[in-house]
Every structure is written in structure tokens, then in C-alpha cells.
Specification:
The longest helix has about 35 residues. The protein folds into three domains: about 200 residues, Heat Shock Protein 90, CATH 3.30.565.10; about 160 residues, Ribosomal Protein S5, domain 2, CATH 3.30.230.10; about 170 residues, Rossmann fold (3-Layer(aba) Sandwich). Helix 1 packs across helix 5 and helix 12 packs across helix 17. With about 650 residues, the protein is α+β, with helices and mostly antiparallel strands. It has 19 helices and 21 strands. Strand 3 and strand 4 form a beta hairpin. The strands form four sheets. An eight-stranded mixed β-sheet has the order 5-4-3-6-2-1-7-8.
Length: about 650
């Protein structure tokens, strides 16, 4: 092995204090320096105020996005302690904002019974990643203020006045030398704070955006707590019972659960620990699922709803159409991974399971009509599952008899390495023909689809197997669907939807994305799904190279650039592409398929709850919410084909 000559002694060993390390490796603390990490700064400061609310000391939190993307978070909690800290010899407030592992959330005698956030490092991390921050505290009869620049103290805490109020106000400007953007998205913050208000019954959270000409403002306060949360999630669905089933347990491990069944076929269970959204679930979810399955089976057998002696409903049958929110409070939560997305405390599973067994059994006995309605749906789901199993076996037997398990219209690539392979799902045979001729056969596969496919939002799994539009997609991806989907078996690292830039193309994209979200969700979560972006226009003139424009803005920019070169609009030929089939293979390759020049949009899922809500609205059975959405957003539509 080659050796590199360089000094390696004490001078080369870097010693960074806590906040310097945060600035050097911000991703370790907030996940990324993209827009997601930027919003994380706001969540951390608000989480501190939420912790005050969970302890019973805060009733209002006001969050303001000021001009130039300055954030202000103010609460009416106790206020950060201002007395001198024995170990650091500076005020406790300054210690919290300048020392990485300082806070009121550690140990058995901490200032909080339970807490979220970054386990006490949130305030100092936000301070370290801000160009400047200032903190104003009201407590002990006084008003105190301190300020910082890039994590270092500019002005230590000092008393600036008197006050009978209590609370903390934090203003900060994220550091533009660290973050890719400083532009906060109002809708992202709005969704997050609505969620927090649902989880903290009676807490009022106000969000105000003072940027731009027209200020935006939203107030969130829900006395119904989790019941209100579930009703909000199901507002575009048909509920099978008017009020959610609410069960709770107080004590050392408080547990709250709200459940409501709908006529839909999808399962939506959201779990939280100390108000942290555990998107990967964990032991609290495991306990809930086990209890749900046992309780409904026990009840069904006791009422002779399950006729056969050994018959059992499976968990999937019982969870079809369920919307549930599970919220637990754990003093010493153990999370798997630094991003806190999965709870690991083993004792929580037993606590949740025991509580649900007891409380849900009582509810079903006391509400036989609701129990009967839910179980009728469960039994129907069980029959559909059996039909789906038979359809799946039929597809497998048919595939085994054929010379290949790949769909007949698939033009596969020669490479077998999924990391470099990609499949284009193309609308129509004519576009598929151009794509097949224009592609790079080594790593690009083409799967043409024709006609509208099944809307899986309105169908059970038994209708999907053998469906002539969806089965080719299932076979091409090669990893199964639903609970059997295995991301390690995908045949292509990129699954690219390439449809016309018109209303029909948009519909096909939406139908495919609905299918991927409901039956191949890991494909989206893993970042394997993309949307191709074919051009809308082609500008051409003899003597110059063709110019492709993907948006109206691109077209206007192209006109201006050409006019500066002395080429007028009247001299140019403009072609508006109505469909992919209008392009010859060379054009399709050059504009939409060449990795060097194409534009691909990766389909991501920052918020599964929001994604489910949107798909239910656009693709579900309820007409009124969809009509309201269309009326509200019609004015924003461009390039609508008539």
C-alpha cells in the first residue's frame, strides 16, 4: 500500500468544542442542511416549548416567520432558569445555549417528566447553526436577554427590566453559509404545528408568516386531542362509526389511542413518543397490533361471528380501513438510530398490549353495533385476502409455465445490475416504440402501457393480481407487492414514469403513483421512483441548433436570449408537443432519456400522512372534498388541454 509523506503528531489532532463540531458536521444533528434540516431548527425550539406544555406550565406558543426568514418562537412557560450554574459558572440560560449536552431533560431529577427534541441538545444546536440568535426570558419578576453569533456569546445574560409574566422568546436567523436555502415553507410548518396541537390537548399554537405582501396566519387548539386528530385525518373518508374509539391509560407510562374505521381499504396508523413522530413504529406499534388482532378475534369467537372453530382473522384483515393515532409518554425513551424514528423500549409493547386488550374489549362489549359493523368489514377483508391469495397463486403458476416471468411488452436491458438499470414506464405504444429505438439498450428498459389503469384507491388487492394494466408493472419491478414487497429484489434502481405532458398523462402518473404508494411504498421511501420531464416546446430555425423548452418560463427565456442575438420570434418555428409519440427516437433520447441532458424529478415522501391525505382526496370515493379542491385550485392550473 502506498504511503503518503506528511506530518502526524499532536499538531494534527483537532480538538473541537461541542458547537464547533455541530457547525463542522451539522448533518449529524439535524439530518441535512437542505430545506428539511432548516425546518428542523424551528421544530427544536418549539419542542422546548412543547415540553413545558407537557409538564403543565405552557398554554400558548406563537411562531412567526419574520421578513428575511427570521424565526421568532415565544411561549408562556416558566422561562429558562437564569441563576448561575454551579459547574459552568455562567447563567443556566447561557449554558443551555452554548453547551452541547446541557439542558433540563437529563436524569431522574430533571426539569421534565418527559420530553421530545434532541435530548437537551436542541437549543445549542440551533444556536450553533444560526448567523445570530437572541433569547429573552421572563421569570422571577424580571426580563432577561442574551445574544449570540454563530454559537458564540455576543452579550451574556443581563436583566433589562421587570415583569410579572413568565416565558421564553427566541429569535434566530439560520446561517446561510451552512444551509442550502433559508426559505421556510409555510405549509410544512403549518402541518407540523397542527399535528403538535392535536397531540397536546388544549395547547394553542399560532403560526404567522409576515413575508410577502399578504400575511398568513393559522391558529391550532384542539380540546378533543387525538379524537380530533383522527377525525381530521378521516375528513375526506366515509367513517363506519361517527365517533372515534378513544382509550387511555395514565400512570408511569401514559398511553392515548384513538381509532376510527372507514370504508377505505388502506391502513393508516400513526405513532408518537413524547410527541415525536416515530415513522418507523417500534414497540408501541407492535403491542397495539398484537392486542388489536387478539381482541377482535376473541370477540368474534365469543359472539359466533367466526363460524369455523379454528378460523382466525389475520392482522391485515382487522386493520383494513383503520385510522389510528397512538401516543405514548416515556421518561427514558430508547430510539433506534439517531433520527428517532423507531421506539426500542421493550417494556412499552407489553404495556400497550395489556391496555388495549382490556379497554378495547370493554368498548366492544358496550357497543355491539359498532363492533358488528367493524367485524363485518374484517370478515369481508378476510374473504378478499383469500381471493387475492388464489389470484396470486394463479399468476405464479401461469408465470411458471411461460418461458419468462417478464411481461411480453417489456423491452429489457442487457445489464443485470439493478444499481445501473432503469425502466421507463411509457404511456402508449407509439411513444413506447420511439423510446425503444432511442434508448441505451445496455441499461434502459422500456415498458409500454396502454389505456387507463385500475384506481387502486377504490379496489382491494384481489382485483390487482392478474389486472392486465398493473400486472406488467408488478412483474417488471420484480419485488412483489403489499406485505410481500422486498426492496432487495427490485430489478431496476430507477423506475421512471414517462407520460405525456397533458391531462391524460397527469392522470396516468397519478394512478401509477397511487399504486406505488399503496402497494410498493418502500420503492418511494427508498427514492427509486422518478418522473420524466419531456419538453413542451421546440424552437427551431435553419442555421441554429434546436432549442427545447420544458416550461413556459423556459420558452420566454429562450425568446429573450435569441432576440439579444438578433433572432426575432417571427423567424422561429415553434412546435408545441402534444405527446411523446410526436418525437422521433433521437429527439426523445436527447430531451428526455439521455442521463447527460434529461431532467428527472425524484418522487419523495417527506410526510406519509400528507401523502395519504392527498391521494384519498384525489383518488377516493368522496366527491365533495375533491370538488372543493378543484374549485380552490383551478386558478393555478396551466397548460390545460381542452
Amino acid at each position: 500500500m502506498e504511503k503518503f509523506e506528511h506530518k502526524y503528531n499532536a499538531e494534527q489532532i483537532q480538538v473541537l468544542d461541542g458547537l464547533e463540531h455541530v457547525r463542522k458536521r451539522p448533518g449529524m444533528y439535524i439530518g441535512s442542511v437542505s430545506v428539511r434540516g432548516l425546518h428542523h431548527l424551528v421544530y427544536e425550539i418549539v419542542d422546548n416549548a412543547i415540553d413545558e406544555a407537557l409538564s403543565g406550565y405552557c398554554t400558548e406558543i406563537n411562531v412567526t416567520i419574520e421578513p428575511e426568514n427570521i424565526i421568532c418562537v415565544e411561549d408562556n412557560g416558566r422561562g429558562i432558569p437564569v441563576d448561575i450554574h454551579q459547574k459552568t459558572k455562567i447563567s443556566a440560560a447561557e449554558t443551555v445555549y452554548t453547551q452541547l449536552n446541557a439542558g433540563g431533560k437529563f436524569g431522574g431529577d430533571s426539569g421534565y417528566k418527559v420530553s421530545g427534541g434532541l435530548h437537551g441538545v436542541g437549543a445549542s444546536v440551533v444556536n450553533a447553526l444560526s448567523e445570530w440568535a437572541e433569547v429573552t426570558i421572563q421569570r422571577d419578576g424580571g426580563i432577561y436577554k442574551m445574544s449570540f453569533e454563530r454559537g458564540k456569546t455576543k452579550e451574556s445574560l443581563k436583566r433589562i427590566g421587570d415583569s410579572k409574566k413568565t416565558g421564553t422568546k427566541v429569535r434566530f436567523l439560520a446561517d446561510n453559509t451552512i444551509f442550502e436555502t433559508l426559505e421556510y415553507e409555510y405549509e410544512i410548518l403549518e402541518n407540523r404545528f397542527r399535528e403538535m396541537a392535536f397531540l397536546t390537548k388544549g395547547l394553542k399554537i399560532t403560526l404567522e408568516d409576515l413575508r410577502g405582501g399578504t400575511p398568513k396566519k393559522a391558529d391550532f387548539c384542539f380540546e378533543g386531542g387525538l379524537n380530533s386528530f383522527v377525525e381530521y385525518l378521516n375528513r375526506n373518508k366515509e367513517a363506519l362509526h361517527s365517533k372515534p374509539i378513544y382509550i387511555e391509560k395514565s400512570g408511569e407510562f401514559p398511553v392515548e389511542i384513538a381509532i376510527q374505521y372507514t370504508s377505505s381499504y388502506s391502513e393508516n396508523i400513526y405513532t408518537f413518543v413524547n410527541n415525536i413522530n416515530t415513522i418507523e413504529g417500534g414497540t408501541h406499534l407492535e403491542g397495539f397490533k398484537r392486542a388489536l388482532t387478539k381482541t377482535f378475534n376473541d370477540y368474534a369467537k365469543s359472539k359466533n361471528i367466526l363460524k369455523e372453530k379454528d378460523a382466525n382473522l389475520q392482522g391485515d384483515d382487522i386493520r383494513e380501513g383503520i385510522t389510528a393515532v397512538i401516543s405514548v409518554k416515556v421518561k427514558e425513551p430508547q430510539f433506534e438510530g439517531q433520527t428517532k424514528t423507531k421506539l426500542g423500549n421493550s417494556e412499552v409493547a407489553g404495556i400497550v398490549q395489556s391496555m388495549v386488550n382490556d379497554k378495547l374489549s370493554t368498548f366492544l362489549e358496550e357497543n355491539p353495533n359498532i363492533a358488528k359493523t367493524i367485524l363485518e368489514k374484517c370478515v369481508s377483508a378476510s374473504r378478499a385476502r383469500e381471493a387475492a391469495r388464489k389470484a396470486r397463486e394463479l399468476v405464479r403458476r401461469k408465470s411458471a409455465l411461460e418461458s419468462t416471468t417478464l411481461p411480453g411488452k417489456l423491452a429489457d436491458c442487457s445489464s443485470k445490475n439493478p444499481e445501473e438499470c432503469e425502466v421507463y414506464i411509457v404511456e402508449g405504444d407509439s411513444a413506447g416504440g420511439s423510446a425503444k429505438q432511442g434508448r441505451d439498450r445496455r441499461f434502459q428498459a422500456i415498458l409500454p402501457l396502454w389505456g387507463k389503469m385500475l384506481n387502486v384507491e377504490k379496489a382491494r388487492a384481489d382485483k390487482i393480481y392478474g389486472n392486465d394494466k398493473l400486472n406488467p408493472v408488478i412483474l417488471a419491478v420484480g419485488a412483489g407487492i403489499g406485505n410481500e414487497f422486498d426492496i432487495t429484489k427490485i430489478r431496476y434502481g430507477k423506475v421512471i414514469i414517462m407520460a405525456d405532458a397533458d391531462v391524460d398523462g397527469a392522470h396516468i402518473r397519478t394512478l401509477l403513483l397511487t399504486f406505488f404508494f399503496r402497494y410498493m411504498r418502500p420503492l418511494i421511501e427508498n427514492g427509486n421512483v422518478y418522473l420524466a420531464q419531456p419538453p413542451l416546446y421546440k424552437l427551431s430555425k435553419k442555421g441554429i441548433e434546436d432549442i427545447y423548452c420544458y416550461t413556459d418560463d423556459d420558452l420566454n427565456t429562450a425568446y429573450k436570449d435569441l432576440e439579444e442575438k438578433g433572432i426575432l420570434r417571427e423567424q422561429l418555428s415553434l412546435q408545441r408537443y402534444k405527446g411523446l409519440g410526436e418525437m422521433n427516437p433521437d429527439q426523445l433520447w436527447e430531451t428526455t432519456m439521455n442521463p447527460e441532458t434529461r431532467i428527472l424529478v425524484k418522487v419523495t415522501m417527506e410526510d406519509a400522512m400528507k401523502a395519504d391525505e392527498t391521494l384519498t382526496l384525489l383518488m377516493g370515493d368522496s366527491v365533495e372534498p375533491r370538488r372543493d379542491f378543484i374549485i380552490k385550485n383551478a386558478k393555478f392550473v396551466k397548460n390545460l388541454d381542452i
